[in-house]
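Data availability (excerpt). The following record was deposited with the supplementary files.
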Amino acid sequence: MRFTVKDLGDHSRSLISLQPGTRVAIEGPFGTFTKHQSHKARPILLIGGGVGITPIRALLEELPTDRDVTLIYRTSNEAGLIFLEEITEFAKQKRIRLHVLPGSRRRYPLDSAHLLQLVPNVRECEMYICGPTSLTETIRESARELGIPKSRVHSEIFEYHTVMESE
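Predicted structure:
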């Protein structure tokens, strides 16, 4: 079993400091982000934003080497690139086209024109998107503009929310 924890506060810091063998109670997993949704003949486009690369990384392990796969890995900055070494190795082993995009939304908008530039066959792809709401909504809108049916766009929101307690 593997856990990915993004350091966002006291709780995540305490998880990071746990020693191997420490007993913990966990819930989940949650979500429905799986490869079984994929049509076998279609090319696959995987888009991971920030820590949303975590389920994408798990999908990479399951993909056969004979699939036409493109992976777009988008983060706000280079410090946010987790699993980059592993993902680069998967890309080599499975002949996956990899686009690593650390930087601002202005630099890498991932609008319909940018997606077409990165993935010329995007209109034929089965799309898997996982990341923050802003990224997911941008990609879903780009897919709509490109005429990609909703049935081929699979997404999951992966972001941190703070909870405000009332006094």
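Summary of structural features: The chain has five helices and five strands.
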